Amino acid sequence: MTENAHRTPETMSEDELVEYIKELRARTQAAFDSTTPEGDQLRHNGSRDELDHANKVARDRKIDVPPGR
């Protein structure tokens, strides 16, 4: 991740939060793509949980995050 590694979604500006969500989307997709049927999904699930939390913060703050990465 970038300079936002030490920040929480709650403390980010609107622009930072949008960029953070876009990074999380890309990371979550990459983790999903690398998950094998017999492999464990911890990395994907962790990324997904982070993304869900960041999206909730954006919704609570009424920030429109465009679709895509």
Descriptive overview:
The protein has 69 residues and is mainly alpha-helical. It has a domain at 13-60. Helix content is 57%, strand content 0%. It has 2 helices and no strands. It has helices at residues 14-33, 42-60. α1 (14-33) runs antiparallel to α2.
List strands and helices in order, with pairings.
Blueprint: H1 14-33, H2 42-60
Report the count of strand segments.
0
N→C terminal distance: 14 Å
- The helix/strand order is HH
Structural class, please?
A: mainly alpha
Q: In what range is the share of β-strand residues?
A: under 5%
Task: Return residue spans where pLDDT drops below 50 for at least 5 consecutive residues.
Answer: none
- Please tell me the overall pLDDT: 82
Shape: elongated
Query: Rg to the nearest angstrom?
Result: 13 Å
Counting DSSP H or I runs of 4 or more residues, the number of helices is 2
Main β sheet profile: none
Helix content: 55-70%
Question: What would a concise description of this structure say?
Answer:
By secondary structure, the protein is mainly α.
Task: Jot down its keywords.
mainly alpha, 2 helices, 69 residues
